[in-house]
From TrEMBL:
Keywords in alphabetical order: Hydrolase
Alphabetized PANTHER family for the sequence: INOSINE-URIDINE PREFERRING NUCLEOSIDE HYDROLASE (PTHR12304), URIDINE NUCLEOSIDASE (PTHR12304:SF4)
Protein name as it appears in the record: Nucleoside hydrolase
Region Disordered, residue ranges: 74-101
Any one biological process term the GO annotation gives: purine nucleoside catabolic process
């Protein structure tokens, strides 16, 4: 049976790859896409999501715009230095114009209606700040029973990429992330940047994607600014495809190795703001210090077959059958 999936996103180059991964996969029933502020402002993330779907000839998928700012504190900065001024290396306008109108409802309303209408539980893949998902769980407390899993790209176990402590998506709205990850309302999977950096793809992988056909070539054409950033960050010619790694797990549960542990998000205004604290101690050690009540468990992705994952991504993005 196809995986019923909703993507919540802030495109972003790696978001564009993640949307395309779901949109091109025959074993995915992509019910909708919702957008959030993040890498660039909401108007740009919404435009980019719609154009990526148009590139994949998926104007059947509804798109609704969501939160334009975090729940509590303003977002200090965006990621235009990584993704380009428009979020897609300045090449958003090269993508096709969408044939479907933006939904008149907001993201939380669309999320709620899609979940209510589904005849089986739905996987949600938030690959930007978690503002829309936190708002959904707060506004519709009974809706969690319709959610199979929330597969999140975000967090960092060792060090961040936006600050020494925090990864960008979680740092952009730590209060929302704490609500979703520690709230226990729906099963969560966290795919942190510790793993997604290890899944980075190289120049040969990108060349193979570009040679695969018009969609692959268009996706590769979105990468110059992003690839230049990662050439510096990685020290070699390649780039991280963070969000696509999380969507791969949403599509094929078990492609990533998960460890079930409690996770808390730092919401102070100090230098640790946005840090994700995954308690990787043995359960007995957690019980000794936490009185046996460590909080909800989150499936934290810690490993994968790196070559197998890269092959999976390339095959799907190249339009090869599932």
């Amino acid at each position: 049976m196809p995986v019923k999936l909703i993507i919540d996103t802030d495109p972003g180059v790696d978001d564009a790859f993640a949307i395309a991964l779901a949109a091109l996969s025959e074993d995915v029933d992509l019910l909708g896409v919702t957008t959030v502020f993040g890498n660039v402002p909401l108007a740009a993330t919404t435009r980019n999501a719609r154009r990526v779907l148009a590139l994949c000839k998926r104007d059947d998928v509804p798109v609704a715009a969501g939160a334009a700012r975090p729940l509590v504190h303003p977002q200090a900065h965006e990621a235009k230095d990584v993704h380009g001024a428009d979020g897609l290396s300045g090449r958003s306008a090269a993508l096709p114009e969408p044939g479907r109108q933006l939904e008149s409802s907001d993201a939380v309303t669309l999320l709620g209606s899609l979940l209510e209408a589904a005849d089986e539980p739905v996987t949600i893949a938030p690959i930007g700040p978690l503002t829309n998902i936190a708002a959904l769980l707060a506004a519709r407390p009974g809706i969690a029973e319709k959610i199979e899993r929330i597969v999140i790209m975000g967090g960092a176990l060792r060090h961040g990429n936006t600050t020494a402590a925090a990864e960008f998506n979680i740092w952009s709205d730590p209060e929302a992330a704490q609500r979703v990850l520690a709230g226990g309302e729906a099963p969560c999977v966290l795919v942190p940047m510790d793993l997604t950096y290890r899944c980075a793809v190289d120049g040969a992988w990108l060349a193979a994607l570009a040679a695969s056909g018009p969609v692959g070539a268009a996706l590769d054409a979105l990468t110059p600014d992003y690839r230049a950033h990662y050439r510096h960050a990685l020290g070699w010619d390649g780039m991280a495809v963070h969000d696509a790694v999380a969507v791969a797990e949403a599509i094929r549960p078990g492609i990533l190795r998960l460890e079930q542990v409690p996770v808390q998000v730092e919401t102070s205004l100090g230098p640790g703001r946005g840090a994700t604290h995954a308690d990787l101690r043995l359960p007995a050690a957690r019980a000794d210090t936490d009185g046996g009540t460590p909080g909800p468990l989150v499936g934290v992705a810690t490993d994968t077959d790196l070559d197998g994952l890269r092959t999976f991504l390339l095959d799907r993005l190249s339009g090869r059958p599932a």
